[in-house]
Design goal:
Keywords: Membrane, Signal, Transmembrane, Transmembrane helix. It is found in: Endomembrane system; Membrane. This is Protein kinase domain-containing protein. By secondary structure, this protein is mainly α. The protein has one domain. The protein is built from 2 helices and no strands. It has helices at residues 13-24, 39-50.
Length: 51
Amino acid sequence: SCVDPDPKRRPAMAEVAARLREITALGPDRATPKVSPLWWAELEIMSSSDS
């Protein structure tokens, strides 16, 4: 667990990032903010449609 009091039992940040990528199905290229002011809405739509 990420909040385990024992630092040795916490996952590495790379593991956390990999798990989040699996959950959201978004790679770094799709998670980069775009110029569009509607980027957050677009991100929500993409993450909802990927599920």
